[in-house]
Model the fold of this input.
Amino acid sequence: MLSKIILASKSKIRKEILDRNNIKSIVEPSNVDEDIVKLSLLKEKTNPEIISKNLAELKANKVSMKKNDEIVLGADSVIDLDGELISKPESREEATKILRKLNGKSHFLISSVCISRNGSMIWNYTDKAKLTMKNLSDDELKNYLSKISDEALYAYNVYQIEGEGRNLFSSIEGDEDTIMGLPVKKIKEYIGSLK
Done:
C-alpha cells in the first residue's frame, strides 16, 4: 500500500473523503484554467463526461510532471443536463439561474478521477449519479441559497448533498462520494493494488 498520494485539487471535501478513508494525501492544486479547457472542448461538441475525464487527467498530469515517481490524483465533477454542461456558478444570480434550469428535472452528476505518475495517466475512472430535483418555487430556491455560504456555493456547484442541498431532491441514485466529487471506493481498490 502507498504511504501517501498527492491530491491535485483545492477541494476541501475531496481531502476530507480521502482522510475519512485513511488515504494519506498532501494537497498540491494544479491551477489548471478549467474555463479555457471547457470552452475549447465545447467548441468541439465534446460531451460533459469526456470534459470531466479530460479535466481530471489534465490536473493529475500537470502536477505529476513536477513530482518524480509520486502518485498524483486529479479529479473533476460536472453536471450533465440532457447533454448540456452545467458549470459552477460565479455569482449568486448565476446560481439562481442554474437552480431554475435544474428545477423539476433529472440530471447526472459526473465525477472523474485520474491517477498519474511522471506526467502520464496510469489509471482513471468515471462514475455518474442521477439526481432528480423537486419542483420548487422561486421563494424556496431563494430560501435555499440564503442558507449557503459563498465559499460553499462557488466550490461545490449549486448544491451540497452532504448539507442543505439534500432537501432539493426528490430522488438521488448513486454513490454519495461520487456526488461529493470523489468515487473513493474505486480509488481505494486501485491504490491497494499498487506496490
Summary: Residues 148 and 163 are 9 Å apart (CA to CA).
